[in-house]
Amino acid sequence: MAAMTPEQLMRRALALAREAGLNGEVPVGALISFPDGRICEGRNRIEKGSPLDHAEMKALQKALEAAGRHGLGEATLYCTAEPCLMCLGAMVQARIGGLVYGCGEPKFGGVGLLRELWAQGRYPHRFPVASGLMEEESGQLLVEFFKERRGRS
User: Fold this and answer.
1) What is the largest CA-CA distance in the chain?
2) Among residues 41, 56, 82, 105, which one is catalytic?
3) Is 56 a catalytic residue?
4) Alpha-carbon torsion 114, 118, 122, 126, what sign?
5) Which of 13, 71, 143, 150 lies at a 20 to 30 A Cα distance from 39?
């Protein structure tokens, strides 16, 4: 299986986010890409599932099942929005190889705090973090979702 480009991977994450939105969930999609081209996907299922069913957590669970606890060091997690502290903690524990996300999440995003913890010498597993890939599309999904939700209430 040929590996996809970062843009192709983020487009797939955006498609997962749209699926989540169509199902009444906050439109966030995530996937984990392995160097050999394998992909493990997840989308938010918080409203109809558990508060733990974030897109990133779903993708991590599938990736851990596929590769094992020590198999994520070369894998990269792509997510449409900046992950929360719970998801970032899980990425550290799973020893993920990298993170790429679309838009920042000013209320719940935790990348800034994770970087502070790394600077303090805490959370010894570090990984590269890149933001802004398809930022506008990712942010627009969230804006439209919450605009529609507020219009109904």
Assistant:
1) 46
2) 56
3) yes
4) positive
5) 143
